[in-house]
Amino acid sequence: MLSSLFEGLAEFGGALVGGLVLLAIVCKVSHSFSHWLFGTMWSRMCVHVNAMMRRKKEKLFEESVRGDVLEIGSGTAINLEYYSRLYSDRINSVTFVEPNPHLFKRAVKRIEVEGPAFAVHNLNEYYPTPKVAEEQYDTIVCTLVLCTVADLEGTVRELHRQLRPGGRLLLIEHISPSPHTLTHFFARLAGPMWTSLGDGCQLLRDTDKVVKSLPWTRTNLSIYNTKMNPLIFIAKLAARTLYGYAEK
After folding, report:
1. What element of type H or E holds 155?
2. Which pTM was predicted?
């Protein structure tokens, strides 16, 4: 009885892994399919992730969001609810930059429905983009996006350049698991498939070190482990999180 159960579980696990590998290969070959798959998955997942991070976001945004705001990798513009509900009296404008066309469409709909009191610019572009290259901002927001950019160092330097003096870069970013741990080993093992399925998301990025390498006047950054469902082990690979702000 037990042996049959274990055999069935092994067959199911093998089929699941095989299916994920096949999906990863298709994503690697077809960027349009990769965008569609991730856009479909993330549009549902981001609601749950946003709920998990709500208190962290509210605290960080309350301290720092003001003036002209740039948010890169804005997804479905889910952070608009914070800007509209809590901080609209101190925001002049918000510029959203999102390269995934499927997430961008959902962002457009959200903006139309919520109708914020401040000016909103919504760009279906990869960052950095010439469309905002000459602008400067009081606040730049990055929530779970720097794991996906092609050039992490170059992107963070550009974010630093685009901040006005006294402006703040706000960060809630998953980073590499601690080295020499079992989680780090599995992150390295799962990395290639994760990146293909996750629209470029990388598990082993030392975003904290890259951010701290720039000449900020002040930083208030910490690292914590996001509480994940203990039954979903793979989610733990992205649990270690950089949180806080860097001020120019």
Report:
1. helix 152-162
2. 0.90
